[in-house]
Amino acid sequence: MALSLHHGQRIVLDQVGGFADGVAVKEVGVETFRLCREL
After folding, report:
1. Which residue, of 21, 25, 32, 37, has the fewest CB within 10 Å?
2. Does residue 13 contact residue 27 with C-beta atoms inside 8 Å?
């Protein structure tokens, strides 16, 4: 999310760490990104 917010667009990561099931994602969701940009 931080990288996407920094670049002003959703970024797809090459790889993600699996420190917890369901936490790490390669690309943030459209609506989640939109809401976070407004904060």
Report:
1. 21
2. yes
Tokens read off for 18:
């699996």
Spatial separation of the C-alpha atoms in residues 26 and 11, rounded to whole Å: 8
Q: How far apart are CA 18 and CA 32, in angstroms?
A: 20
Spatial neighbors of 33 by CB under 8 A, at least 6 apart, are 1, 4, 5, 10
Tokens coding 22: 């369901």
pLDDT by residue (tens digit) across 1-39?
A: 999 999 999 999 998 877 777 678 889 999 999 999 999
CA distance 31 to 10: 11
